[in-house]
Amino acid sequence: MSPAPTAPRQATATEVRHLKTASVHQNGELHPRVTSRVLKAMLDAGFIYREDSDGYRLSDAEALVYTGNTTWRITWAGRRAALSAAQWRDLTERVDASGAFTTKVHWVTRNGLAELGLAEYRDDQGAVQPDDGGSGVHGPRFQAFRTELGCRVAQLAEADEFK
User: Fold this and answer.
1) Is the pLDDT of residue 157 over 80?
2) Is the pLDDT reported for residue 158 higher than 90?
3) What DSSP string describes 27-75?
4) What per-residue confidence (pLDDT) applies to 127?
5) Residue 111 to residues 44, 50, 77, 141: CA-CA distances in angstroms?
6) Measured at the alpha carbon of residue 120, what is the angle toward residues 14 and 163, in degrees to the nearest 5?
7) Which terminus of the chain has fewer Cβ atoms in its 10 Å neighbourhood, N or C?
8) Which of 124, 119, 115 is nearest to 105 (CA)?
């Protein structure tokens, strides 16, 4: 009988900060000034990976000693680790068939997901808006939807497609 799979470990506050930075980067790149200790911990947890100059994904051991000028990138599991429990629940469970978040999703969670590129606000014509359109006096005017990236994170984080 094979052992039961273990849940991924929780990211530390420092790791979450770096993972969120990578999440909002266009190419999912970590900031170049992450310490080697934090890089190793995130690599061991499966939150990041590194490619060589040809785009080949390096093994963990190779990634740590590689001297080429390439960046560390966030994995699907890393994107998941950057989310709070409420964000993960809402991203995976509180979305209807059209991709819209249900009314059970709190505005703070929607905004946090939007900052990470996992949600977006749309008007009645489907045009993407920069925020929910709320004025502070009146409630939001636009509805939040899970983005394609948000959908992929929800579907793929458990079985990180790169591993």
Assistant:
1) no
2) no
3) T-BPPTT--HHHHHHHHHHTSEEEB-TTSPBPPHHHHHH--SS--EEE-
4) 92
5) 30, 30, 21, 14
6) 50
7) N
8) 119
| Pair type for strands 143-146 and 119-122 | antiparallel
Q: What is the residue whose two structure tokens read 């170049």? A: 32
pTM of the model: 0.83
Those residues with Cβ within 8 angstroms of residue 67's Cβ, 6 or more apart along the chain or in another chain:
none
* Count, residues in the chain: 163
Q: Which residues contact 24 (CB under 8 A, 6 or more apart)?
A: 115, 116, 117
Question: Quick one: tokens of 144?
Answer: 């939040």
Distance of CA 54 to the CA centre of its chain: 25
- Residue in the structure block whose two tokens are 């980067």: 25
Do residues 19 and 75 lie in contact, with contact meaning Cβ atoms separated by under 8 Å? no
Which two tokens mark 12?
Answer: 């530390």
